[in-house]
């Protein structure tokens, strides 16, 4: 079957196959979740090795096994890529820390649950942990990304706030300092575990004990 089209006073003759082939070429292909994840995984490896500013998108594309143009189909700019990676890592970290959160247990038990999840995730995901640390101080994150990254941890913040009001935790310590202290001590604990894995339990238990003694009301 032939299709006849008239444009600019000219007659064009197409076969059905040609017509539909032309239509298909003008329609954007659906994005692949696997390809998107491959790009994010590659970005994690390259950023961890090269740093955020020194890592070119061409190297990330090569590592992901896609053309550089394909990368920009999924992420319009390098900043968009970094923001997407930040949100993905934060969601993964939140799942590790907050999954199975023991809401009905003591404050100490709840915070220990979060601590263990953080330390175990960090030790098992060194590249992501390194990149997350870089992203958090990069100045490249949008307000929306920061809010999206914080949202899954609201329950932990509420636990700390409630414990302060109930005089379980020290009221003289700012809420944000209590959270940051956990992060700093957990990072130190992870570093030590990486250096000496045989001491993992000792470091993990001692690190949390230092944290708890520092924030708990006497």
Task: Provide a descriptive summary of the structure in words.
- This protein has three domains: 30 residues, no CATH class; 46 residues, Homeodomain-like (Arc Repressor Mutant, subunit A), CATH 1.10.10.60; 127 residues, Tetracycline Repressor, domain 2.
- The N terminus is likely disordered.
- The longest helix has 21 residues.
- Helices cover 69% and strands 6% of the residues.
- Strands 1-2 form a two-stranded antiparallel sheet.
- The chain is mostly helical.
Weakly predicted, low-confidence segments: 2-27
Structural class by sheet pairing and helices:
mainly alpha
Number of helices: 11
Largest sheet: 2 strands, antiparallel
* Shape-level CATH architecture of the largest domain: Orthogonal Bundle
Attribute tags:
single chain; Arc Repressor Mutant, subunit A; 11 helices; 3 domains; Tetracycline Repressor, domain 2; mainly alpha; disordered N terminus; 2 strands; 69% helix; 218 residues; two-stranded antiparallel ribbon
Quick take:
This protein has 11 helices and 2 strands. With 218 residues, it is mainly alpha-helical.
Helix and strand topology:
Blueprint: E1 2-7, E2 10-15, H1 16-26, H2 33-50, H3 57-64, H4 68-74, H5 78-98, H6 107-124, H7 126-136, H8 143-150, H9 154-165, H10 175-195, H11 200-215
């Amino acid at each position: 079957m032939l299709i006849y089209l008239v444009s600019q006073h000219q007659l064009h003759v197409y076969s059905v196959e040609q017509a539909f082939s032309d239509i298909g070429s003008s329609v954007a292909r659906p994005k692949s979740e696997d390809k998107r994840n491959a790009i994010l995984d590659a970005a994690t490896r390259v950023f961890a090795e090269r740093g955020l500013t020194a890592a070119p998108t061409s190297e990330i594309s090569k590592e992901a096994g896609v053309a550089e143009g394909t990368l920009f189909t999924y992420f319009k700019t390098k900043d968009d890529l970094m923001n997407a990676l930040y949100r993905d890592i934060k969601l993964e970290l939140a799942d590790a820390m907050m999954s199975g959160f023991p809401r009905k247990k003591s404050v100490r038990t709840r915070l220990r649950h979060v601590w263990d999840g953080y330390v175990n995730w960090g030790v098992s995901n060194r590249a992501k942990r390194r990149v997350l640390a870089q992203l958090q101080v990069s100045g490249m994150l949008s307000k929306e990304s920061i809010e999206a990254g914080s949202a899954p941890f609201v329950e932990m913040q509420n636990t700390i706030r409630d414990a302060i009001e109930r005089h379980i935790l020290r009221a003289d310590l700012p809420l944000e300092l209590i959270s940051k202290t956990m992060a700093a001590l957990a990072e130190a604990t992870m570093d030590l575990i990486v250096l000496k894995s045989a001491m993992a339990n000792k470091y993990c238990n001692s690190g949390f004990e230092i944290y708890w003694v520092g924030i708990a009301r006497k």
